[in-house]
Design a protein that fits this description.
The protein is mainly alpha-helical. The protein has one domain. Helix content is 75%, strand content 2%. It contains 21 helices and two strands. It has a two-stranded antiparallel ribbon. The longest helix is centred in the middle third of the chain and has 32 residues. It is globular and about 65 Å long.
Length: 517
């Protein structure tokens, strides 16, 4: 079974090479990309079932080097689950992009560039999830970031180049901090293998542990877009093509959150910054959702809610109990799927209405009733209405916090409830204006909503375009997955509970050596 582990990263890299060779054959490129992601999905599903049944992680030492000197690929329940969910999301967005490319040509997503870059991005995401040492985690980050630099500037429009430059600078700062932290950790404990670092880090003075801990948290916090280092995201994501924005929103910030989970549950168990993380979580929740309420453009609304809901994940991580970690993992899975689905639905709205401004779009309920459903279902899910997965995840987090019962936990619960209500308000206000409203005069609407008339991109207008069936099918498929998270919430949440219990009992270097051997 361990022989399948390296294929998670190798297949996308090989697929990228093949798509480059067949750069003049777009159909073959798309077929190779889809087949590669489907194969990774199957492998991840097999590994998830196997690792859950075996109740022990799988580890592979690349090249046969002895642990901890070689590169170790490490698959536990968490890594396998996230690889599975990510590959499904990547495959759905690929189908969406195929439809967009077929309808628009190469203007928005040049196929010869998009497919190999997309697979390289997938390889970086998967590598980050299964990395067993800090340097390989850094390599995974850099692979996905280099690919994201290309994807975020596709089309080379002025706005994409401008916001892409900000994204690149912020990402480079984060990478430099991460690399500096790795160098300091290696200098302090003589290794970058996570299991070995966890064993040795407790022997360092508390002040040294705290410095190393904070450096990693800041580096990963930038990637996860937590407050106050989330300023770059709302301006960067909305300008990219719809498929790219959907993938970035669904997956890239979650890689940062995943790295924070590994840091807090494995590396720095004896260095407690949970109070600081709780304060950061509260600020991320509230500032993000207030930003969403102040927007008049759908992609900016979703970008701010993305920032806000990362706060729920930091909240659960900072509670630091088995129940809380399990709830956090469930919420990560929920948010990856729902946030991606919403961005795909907004991509369809933009094509149908020629705008993503809620001041300009109207009458879509009659013009596109199916599109109304494709937006409404994930919107109320993200807002946390019962019985959907967003409600289940939030309630689980609140219950875990209530069990701790400190005053700060109570404040976080209230902040989480407020954030959920304001998220629902922002998304349903957009629903009311874009779908229910029947062609009111723009000046009248701006008078009613007041401040929204001066919001960024409130007057954005694009070209009305045909919606190919495959784009609708891909979005509908993702909506079905969001519903499945609710229908199968029992077994999925039980799996997440086992993940939470396992993370708080981290694997030792001896166990990794035995598995890799």
């Amino acid at each position: 079974m361990t022989s399948l582990v390296p294929l998670i990263v190798m297949l996308p890299l090989l697929g990228a090479a093949v798509t480059l060779v067949f750069g003049r054959n777009p159909r073959l490129q798309m077929l190779v990309t889809a087949a590669t992601l489907a194969a990774v999905s199957i492998i991840a599903a097999v590994l998830l079932v196997a690792v859950d049944a075996a109740d022990t992680p799988f580890a592979v030492s690349v090249g046969g080097w002895p642990v901890p000197f070689g590169i170790v690929l490490y698959v536990d329940r968490l890594a396998a689950l996230l690889v599975l969910v990510s590959s499904i999301v990547l495959l759905a967005v690929l189908l969406f992009s195929i439809g967009q490319g077929a309808a628009d040509g190469v203007e928005e997503t040049p196929i010869s560039i998009f497919n190999p870059t997309y697979l390289i991005l997938a390889a970086g995401i998967f590598d980050a999830f299964i990395a067993g040492d800090l340097f390989n985690l850094y390599v995974g980050f850099e692979i996905l970031l280099v690919a994201s630099y290309v994807l975020i500037t596709l089309g080379s429009t002025e706005s994409r180049i401008r916001t892409g430059a900000v994204y690149i600078v912020v990402s480079l700062v984060s990478s430099i901090l991460f690399l500096a932290a790795i160098a300091m950790i290696y200098g302090a404990v003589g290794t970058v293998n996570m299991a070995q670092v966890a064993e040795r880090i407790a022997q360092l003075p508390p002040e040294t542990q705290l410095v190393l801990h904070l450096m990693l948290v800041i580096a990963f916090g930038i990637k996860a877009a937590i407050f106050p280092v989330s300023f770059w995201l709302p301006d960067s994501y909305p300008t990219a093509p719809a498929p790219v924005t959907a993938v970035f929103a669904g997956l890239l910030t979650k890689v940062g959150v995943y790295a924070l989970i590994r840091t807090e549950t494995q590396l720095f168990v004896s260095s407690d910054i949970n109070t600081l993380l709780l304060i950061v979580a509260l600020a991320t929740l509230v500032v993000g959702v207030l930003g969403a309420v102040a927007q008049a453009e759908l992609k900016r609304i979703l970008s701010f809610t993305l920032v806000s809901h990362v706060g729920y994940m930091i909240f659960g991580l900072a509670i630091a109990t088995e129940n809380a970690i399990g709830a956090t993992v469930y919420y990560i899975v929920h948010h990856i799927v729902v946030q991606t689905t919403l961005f795909l639905a907004v991509g369809l709205i933009e094509r149908k209405a020629g705008s993503t401004s809620i001041l300009r779009v109207s009458g879509l309920m009659k013009a596109a009733p199916l599109l109304a459903v494709l937006y409404f279902v994930p919107a109320i899910n993200l807002g946390g209405l019962p019985p959907f997965s967003g409600f289940i995840g939030k309630v689980a987090l609140f219950e875990a916090a209530a069990q701790v019962g400190t005053p700060l936990m109570i404040v976080l619960i209230l902040g989480g409830i407020l954030t959920s209500l304001l998220t629902l308000y922002a998304l349903m206000r957009a629903w009311n204006l874009a779908f229910w409203r029947e062609g009111d005069d723009l000046a009248e609407i701006e008078g009613r909503v007041g401040y929204l008339g001066n919001a960024p991109a409130a007057d954005v207008q694009t070209e009305i375009r045909r919606i190919p069936a495959i784009m609708t099918v891909a979005t509908a498929g993702m909506v079905a997955v969001t519903i499945a998270l609710t229908v199968f919430a029992g077994p999925l949440y039980a799996l997440c509970d086992r993940i939470g219990a396992g993370l708080l009992q981290p694997i030792t270097l001896q166990q990794i050596d035995e598995e890799a051997g």
